[in-house]
Amino acid sequence: MDDIQIIEDDGIEVIDNFLTKDEFQKLYDGMVNSRFQWGMGEAVREETSTVPYNYNWQMYHMFYYTPNVMNLDTMPLLQDVFPKLNIGVLIKAKANCNFVTEKIIEHGMHVDVSELANICTTAILYLNTNDGYTIFEDGTKVESVANRLVKFPTGIMHTGTSCTNSPNRLVINFNYIEMKDEYARH
After folding, report:
1. How many Å apart are CA 90 and CA 82, to the nearest integer?
2. Sheet of 141-143: strands edge to edge?
3. Cis preceding linkage at 83, omega within 30
4. How far apart are CA 186 and CA 184, in angstroms?
């Protein structure tokens, strides 16, 4: 498949055109409308932020966070994503919206769900194209391109950014334990 790119041997996998055009449009339209609810919080935990406090903010939407957060109204928007990620156990699914800034701001290297980092996979689905990106501790940079997914072991340090050429940078972040073939047999 031409749309999959494995970056070196560090486990970072980039998949362009992750969803079909119709699947992607349905997800995007479901999130970018006046009925979709967003909260506000830190872009990264304060202890890992590398930017001044005033720049460490984003809008977010928690679809799911084990064990007790599930948004029954919006989880159906992700129905086309889950089968393609081969999820065994979903830990967290969260949308992030970072606003435009005059210059790109990198929020700070971190790992998601650090308590499970040695057994989880992280996937980031980019919902719009802009000059923001995800950068990894080894310097690998994955640009924000609509319908691109980057998948990597959760223990790899990474950070997201703002953007300068779009009103916002929209992503959905998934943390999960992958279903292994040997578990799927019965």
Report:
1. 9
2. 141-143, 133-136, 158-159
3. no
4. 6
All domains of the chain in start order, with CATH: 11-178 (2.60.120.620)
* Alpha-carbon distances, residue 183 vs 48, 153, 178 (angstroms): 36, 19, 10
For 57, the token pair is 């903010």
Look up residue 107 and give its DSSP letter: -
Return all residues near 128 (Cβ < 8 A) that are at least 6 apart: 28, 144, 146, 166, 168, 169, 170
For β-strands 87-99 and 168-178, DSSP reports them as antiparallel
Bridge partners, 77 (sequence order): none
Cα–Cα distance measured from residue 100 to residue 62, given in angstroms and rounded to the nearest whole number: 21
C-alpha–C-alpha distance, residues 20 and 178, integer Å: 22
The pLDDT tens digits of the residues spanning 46-87 come to 666 666 666 667 889 999 998 888 999 999 999 999 999 999
Structure confidence by residue, pLDDT tens digits, 96-142:
999 999 999 898 899 998 888 888 999 999 999 999 999 999 999 99
Q: Does the reported pTM lie above 0.85? A: yes
